[in-house]
């Protein structure tokens, strides 16, 4: 996850960004301390509140997608609000699949997902904001429903990424929340309170 999407462009291409350098930063530390950029602290949230908190994210993104500048990049190397929203929509889909996989198979193995490659393949910058808002909301509702329906005894079930990072069902939800909150701060600006929590 990065809030500065450094996208190299193909020669002569005005709108088709090439693949950026691979993301190498391990963001799992956000499960143990607050994020200095967006201020999100996963430790502040009760596990029983994960579902309702996830469900509350879609309206904020729908508002972002009504902005007049939704398709404009603030800088050539930084995604537009539309591109970030497309990414978040697809993050909901990926995390929904991973949450269901953990529930079906303790010690599940997650398939890799390259968000930057997805952005290029699906041409995020050309998508319709209204359609993206509806798709994002539907996927958000689905993930929230998965967390709402999971019995408490499943919250400790595990899933493992290909890089060896281990998540429980509960920590997967916390990690998802940070991802979506962080990208919301990417497009709206970080909250003032983060200066005290960094």
From TrEMBL:
Q: Which Gene3D superfamilies match?
A: dinb family like domain
What InterPro entries does the entry give?
Answer: DinB-like, DinB/YfiT-like
Using the record for this protein, list the coiled-coil segments as residue ranges, or answer none. none
Q: List the Pfam families hit by this protein, alphabetically.
A: DinB_2
So where does this one cross the membrane? none
Where is the segment annotated Disordered? 1-21
Boundaries of every DinB-like domain copy? 65-185
- Name the UniProt record assigns to this protein: DinB-like domain-containing protein
